[in-house]
Amino acid sequence: MSFVREFIKKVWESWSTRIGIIFLAILIILSILVVLTYPIDFGRRIWSNPSYWADNPRLAPPIWASFFTGAKIPTHTVLKLNQPTDILGGENLTLMEYSVEINYGYDDYPSFLHVLIKNVTFYSTKPPRIEVWVSRPDNLIVRLTSFTIRGPSPIEEPPYRRYVESPYRIILTEDSTSILNLIYSLNEKYSSNITLDEVFTIGSEKLFFGYPSKLGERGFSILKGPYRLHAKVYIYGGLGSVGEVDFILGGKTYGLLGTDIIGRDLMMGLLYGFPASLMIGFLSSTLITSIGTLLGVLSGYIGGRIDTVIQRSSDLVLNMPLLPILIFFTFIFREFSMRFLLIILVLTAFSWPGLTIIIRPMVMQIKSSQFIEAAISCGASRRWVMRKHILPNLAPFAIAQSIFLIPSAILAEAALSFLGLGDPTLPTWGQILEQGFKSGAIYLGYWWWVIPPGILIVFTAITFLLITIGLEPILNPKLKSVI
Prior knowledge:
By secondary structure, this protein is an alpha+beta fold. The protein has helices at residues 2-13, 15-37, 42-47, 176-190, 196-202, 204-209, 266-302, 304-318, 322-332, 339-351, 353-367, 370-377, 382-418, 429-438, 441-444, 447-475, and strands spanning 77-81, 86-89, 93-104, 112-122, 129-135, 141-148, 160-162, 168-171, 210-212, 220-222, 225-236, 240-250. It folds into two domains: 2-48 and 265-482, MetI-like (MetI-like fold), CATH 1.10.3720; 72-250, no CATH class.
């Protein structure tokens, strides 16, 4: 116990190790939180599913980016209603109204306006009808659109359910009926002459949250003030329900780290990268250290033909270029469902020789020690000597090497992902970087897509480098007397 206390004391005296351990604790805590809160199939079911992100703004910068512009940029707003705000009905018809108010005071137009209808239940053979209305600050009230839910088939039995698995999505800013109704109302109120063809130049969001700034002209200004959105559900037969109605105002900013080209929350992907990167790093370094140490011990202690075979094999594998081999195998087995395991196996298969070559002379030096000769003279077997004397003396050095190998494995995976050969279902930092570069993010100014994953890769590499620098004078067998 005194040895352990002294070891911890020496470790904590090094400023680099102290900082590295604090950084590592942050990495581990974030990884544990992600593992506990994210679903197991996050990569395949959520991250790689474009429909999951359909209601997010695309290529939106982080919320805090607006602080540097001075303008009040629209933030992403989701208003969910599980219960109707008003119910009117009789025996044969029930009107359920879902209303929300948006106090719009931003200096820019939103990205879009969506309405989602979820889990509709009805009993009558006449299906429900839904209308969407908007009430604007300029006292303009417009029925934007209406539609009838798909009716029951002849073989269906009540209750009839619709939009249970996925919602019915009304993209108002792209709906031609909504746009035409707004054009008609604006032309009538402001004596303008807007046409549907001109909307592609003007931008449909300006019709919803703006007004013609001069009578008869097409210039638009933002209309600030309270907007009220209504979804009216007419249910025939008196019985029925709606599970949820969502009103989504697409912002020009989103979350702490913005979104990518399909609206994915980059914060979620980068957080998922913590356990993914650490898993690849720890598994690879553990396997490489275990195989390299074991072969080094066998080569240095047993000698003879075993030593010759291991050393020649080490020389052969060591002279093979690792990155081209990784690229080759990941390309050949690109259909492999768990490609990150393939990366770990290839890294392990071609990274052990360096440690084996270093371990061999250390074992030969320990082998000539008097306590080894004493153990052999007492009848100790080779296996017993290697297990009880050789490996314990090598353990500190092996631990230091395993820590040093972790960032190498993480960087190798990031390099493969950057080349487009990573696991597409696993959102690692390298994968996010690759998708950003492939989409031209660095050239188009989408800095939030490429800078954060790059910083996290460097941060992780520096974390283990700091720990290794602090442990080297303590764990190196040549400097063991300092402990």
